[in-house]
From TrEMBL:
This is ATP/GTP-binding protein. InterPro entries: NLR-like, P-loop_NTPase, TPR-like_helical_dom_sf. One of its GO terms (molecular function) is ADP binding.
Length: 716
């Protein structure tokens, strides 16, 4: 394509073409909101953690060093808190964060860096907090500008000094992908991690956070359960628990909630030494060393679950084992409030079971992306997962897949960025890591792939690519490279690469998938046709127009045969012909019926259906090329209004529609109106993408031609 739809040669790429990848059925998101997803950033002004320790024990020296690091004359430094899981690194970071934000003049910013999606979302929220506007953030999510560069530009320009905490950075490699970890003259970075190797943290000051001294460990238990024994008795229990803060917290939470038959420190310690059931931690799990924190934590939660059983609350154990199939990241509460949970515990008992886990500090309530969530410590979940009896695993996996499945839209629709989708990413991938049975893995991979589609269709192309790629890798372990669902995930990976402008990689990926799909399923298979449709988009943007058109025509014919002429995917493929073909061929294609496609789509799908709007956009372009300027002008203005209602004024496809509108206005002799429209388009693109981006450059060239009188309409 060579024109008003932001085509590659003239207007900088076909990434935002309406017909390119926005097939939606009539079903929409079913989250319980009124059609408009929240577009605001996650909150980074408070730590996404639950209850903090009553008193921060034995961290005075560390806190003094950290306080000095955020003094008025200290900036541009990185501090790394490292230690085993459960040692209290996050608690130390929280304590410093609270002190910093309580004092005047310094801003605290908290980001969960446990995975790529969470890190990117959190850092973009930091940019928003420091002044980045919606258009810039949207461009970063779309992959049209480097996200890390945007974030650090705003951190460097911050009017206030800041403390940035990167919590749970246990995979430091994700910081290097995009250069997320930097220094700034305006603030200090504090990282928490289990990884201490110096090569991960060049130039940073490292601080070890270890287990507590005996006396302080005893005081932690006494802080939580002051009436259960003496300090010496508490010290003996603390020794048995390795003086690990997480284990001490779980033990103290248990002791403080025994009312009818209170336990003493001594009785708790005796059970730790003598109860054989705690050795379940070793069943079916990786071999654990004596120093492995999973073993220590396993001792505490198993006694707690034994107590639940004795009190007639076995559902608490079932719920904890279900939570352990997911990631140690915020899990939306509404995900648990679904009939699918009935595979492992009665839905009517979920509330009671959850309250029991909360009371015993086995999980915590947090807020993420404006959603109430539960979150459990990773060491706890690892130990629970390792100790789960093998005969319970299939039901747990089935329930987990059903809950995730119900949390996603049945057929993802195009729309504004929805931060709540990102919350599901680590859980979908964690579930795929846990599953060991092919049938369950196939179901979980189908859910993860649909999540990637949903992210893709809200413009979060980087997250879509990462999710599809990782899910395919995980699924391939059990299912093999030629499994239908693995191939579908690989196809989505290729589609996301296309949207990121990585055309050669996208071509390689999609050709490889398509070749296997043709061999296994045939040329009329819907999955093969979907990969074919994606590949023709790539070829068009690589300048191989005729090859692209031939493949597109084959896809149209294949979808007519496999899906029927009225299926939205068939209609979308036909709409792409409106945009791809030269004007002379558009008029004769399908015996002239192609030009009546907008009315057909409106009748079959409704005028506000995403495919119908995209068809109208392509149709307006075809009319413009045919010299039918008045019809094109009227149609593209309606399209632009529909896009604004759906996406907001900054969305790139809105600007593409307005750019075509400027052309039609100029073609009708309304040059001043065309210049005004293009001035707005260029200004918005400069703000979002920068003055040197190809989209901005192409728009400014059109604006200059219009303003100077050098522009000519088609056929002139």
């Amino acid at each position: 394509m060579k024109g008003g739809m932001d085509g590659r040669a003239e207007d900088g790429g076909r990434v935002y073409q309406a017909s390119g990848d926005q097939h939606i059925n009539e079903q929409h998101h079913h989250y319980g909101w009124d059609g408009v997803a929240p577009g605001g950033p996650d909150s980074v002004r408070r730590p996404a953690v639950g209850r903090l320790p009553v008193v921060l024990r034995d961290r005075g020296e560390v806190m003094e060093r950290l306080r000095a690091s955020v003094g008025a004359d200290r900036v541009g430094e990185v501090f790394v808190l490292y230690g085993m899981g459960g040692a209290g690194k996050t608690a130390v970071a929280c304590a410093l964060f609270e002190e910093v934000t309580a004092a005047e003049g310094r801003v605290g910013l908290w980001v969960n860096a446990a995975d790529r999606a969470s890190l990117r979302a959190g850092m973009l929220a930091v940019a928003a907090d420091r002044g980045a506007d919606d258009a810039e953030l949207l461009a970063a999510r779309n992959g049209l500008r480097p996200a890390a560069d945007l974030v650090w530009r705003y951190l460097d320009r911050s009017a206030e000094p800041w403390l940035l905490v990167l919590d749970n950075t246990d995979d430091p490699e994700i910081l290097r992908d995009g250069s997320w970890l930097r220094t700034s003259p305006r603030g200090t970075v504090l990282v928490t991690t289990r990884r201490a190797a110096a090569h991960w943290w060049p130039g940073a000051e490292l601080q070890h956070i270890g287990v507590l001294p005996r006396e302080d460990a005893a005081l932690v238990l006494r802080d939580l359960a002051p009436n259960c024994g003496t300090t010496e008795q508490a010290a003996r229990v603390a020794d048995r628990l390795g003086r690990l803060p997480l284990a001490l917290t779980l033990a103290g939470g248990f002791l403080s909630h025994q009312v009818l038959d209170p336990w003493t420190m001594d009785s708790y310690g005796d059970r730790l030494d003598g109860d054989e059931r705690v050795q379940l931690i070793d069943r079916g799990a990786d071999a654990l060393s004596d120093a492995d924190p999973r073993r220590t934590v396993g001792l505490t939660w198993q006694l707690t679950l034994d107590a639940f059983e004795a009190r007639g609350l076995p559902e608490a154990a079932a719920l904890l084992r279900l939570l352990a199939r997911f990631a140690a990241e915020p899990l939306p509460l509404n995900l648990l409030n679904h009939a699918g949970i009935g595979v492992v515990l009665p839905r009517s008992r979920t509330e009671t079971a959850l309250r029991a886990l909360l009371d015993q500090s086995l999980t915590e309530l947090v807020e993420a992306a404006g959603v109430r969530c539960v979150q459990s410590h990773g060491v706890l979940l690892d130990s629970v997962s390792a100790a789960t009896p093998a005969d319970l695993v299939p039901a747990l996996d089935t329930a987990a897949v059903r809950l995730l499945d119900a949390a996603l839209p049945d057929v993802p629709d195009a729309g504004p960025y929805d931060p709540r989708l990102r919350l599901s990413v680590p859980h979908a991938l964690a579930l795929l890591k846990h599953i060991g049975e092919p049938s369950a893995a196939r179901d979980a991979l189908a859910v993860a792939t649909r999540l990637a589609v949903a992210l893709h269709r809200t413009g979060d192309y980087l997250s879509a690519w990462e999710t599809a790629r990782t899910a395919a890798d995980l699924g391939q372990r059990l299912l093999g490279a030629d499994d239908r669902m693995v191939l579908a995930a690989r196809s989505r990976e290729g589609r996301a690469l296309f949207r990121l402008g990585r055309y050669p990689e996208a071509e390689v990926a999609l050709r490889a998938v398509r070749t296997v799909q043709e061999r296994l399923f045939g040329v009329d298979d819907p999955d093969f046709l979907d990969s074919s449709y994606g590949l023709q988009l790539v070829l068009a943007n690589l300048g191989r127009r005729q090859e692209s058109i031939t493949l597109l025509r084959d896809t149209v014919a294949g979808r007519r045969s496999a899906l029927g002429p009225e299926h939205p995917l068939t209609l979308r493929a036909r709409a792409s012909l409106l945009e791809a073909l030269p004007a002379a061929e558009v008029a004769t294609e399908e015996g002239g019926a192609l030009l009546s496609l907008p009315a057909e789509c409106a009748r079959l799908l409704g005028p506000d259906h995403t495919v119908a709007i995209g068809v109208a956009h392509n149709h307006a372009w075809a009319l413009y090329l045919l010299g039918r300027f008045e019809e094109a002008d009227e149609e593209i203005r309606r399209v632009a209004e529909a896009y604004v209602r759906r996406f907001g004024p900054e969305y790139p496809i809105v600007l593409a529609a307005r750019q075509l509108s400027a052309r039609t206005r100029a073609a009708l002799g309304h040059t001043d109106a065309a210049v005004e429209l293009m001035t707005e388009v260029v200004a918005r693109r400069e703000r979002a993408l920068g003055p040197g981006h190809p989209f901005t450059v192409a728009g400014r060239r059109l604006l200059d031609d219009l303003a100077s009188g050098n522009w000519r309409p088609p056929g002139a």
